[in-house]
Amino acid sequence: MPNNQFKKSELYSFITGVASTAIARRLQKKFNQADLSLTIEQWSVLYHLWKEDGISQQDLCKATFRDKPSMTRLVDNLEKAGMVKRIPSRSDRRKNLIYLTERAKEIQDTCYGFAEETVEEALSGVSQDKIEVCKEVLKVVYENLR
Amino acid sequence: MPNNQFKKSELYSFITGVASTAIARRLQKKFNQADLSLTIEQWSVLYHLWKEDGISQQDLCKATFRDKPSMTRLVDNLEKAGMVKRIPSRSDRRKNLIYLTERAKEIQDTCYGFAEETVEEALSGVSQDKIEVCKEVLKVVYENLR
DNA sequence: TTTGGTTAGTTGTTAAAACAACTATATGCC
DNA sequence: GGCATATAGTTGTTTTAACAACTAACCAAA
């Protein structure tokens, strides 16, 4: 058996996502401490809407790598929290277009700052070169399995 | 602002764990297709028990990076599925020691093969050097945030 | 040996994930 | 136009995640 094989089999943490779980928990704590009642999942939806809103739930599914029922419920909860509004599309009556509320726009910078802070903490002591390699590998993994 | 900072802030996929989610889903599919009614979370518990069983739920919490209530329920379900048994510790009556059943021992090699296969598929085209860098970075992240 | 703090595990609750099954609308082909 | 198929979104169900609050048992110090 080539050495290659053996090493790959030890990638338990890759499968279980221990690192991303740790980062997500840290970010969640920052949200809680700032009394932003926002889950990481909700944040991940807002993250894309801050770049561009007025997109469909289906677009958000692709962006966040989640299925349609999950998105329905995430948007439900974001709507209850007063962060987004569903506006029926006029060109395609099957679609909801999701728009940010003023409240959601207000918290954008705060949330962005917390995310930045969290990633800084997580990657402290890691060289930029290595970070680039990781980003690259994570992207390949995503492409390989899509 | 140093270039360094800007790049880190773009690590959305690090926080959301898109890659590990993709890997976990792929592995879950293999389990389902083989009629192994086993969730990834249950598998992650068995993964450690296959190395050493007769350990406490608390030990499993540390190993799998989950909290105590989550482990109670995972062990509940593994017990229902006939994969493990709780045996009260004689030296410390607070503790349950978790033992594998014969059934769990039987499926070890099959599960291990599926995990190996999945990681192979995920990392196809990625050099061993880069994989090593990733493992290293993920470990540092975990240490930084623990 | 009693008291106070710690550790192991369980229960309750809310949000989310994944899958199947469903409705409604759109689209492409005859 | 009418029908088959695809797409957008919702609902139902089961399992998990995370947190708080709880019980039971252990341990150490007065």
TrEMBL record, chains A, B:
Keyword Transmembrane found: no
HTH marR-type domain segment(s): 8-143
Keyword DNA-binding among record annotations: yes
Signal peptide stretch: none
Keyword set, alphabetical order: DNA-binding, Transcription, Transcription regulation
InterPro entries: HTH_MarR-typ (IPR000835), MarR/SlyA-like (IPR039422), WH-like_DNA-bd_sf (IPR036388), WH_DNA-bd_sf (IPR036390)
Name of the protein: MarR family winged helix-turn-helix transcriptional regulator
Originating species: Niabella pedocola
Lineage of source species: Bacteria, Pseudomonadati, Bacteroidota, Chitinophagia, Chitinophagales
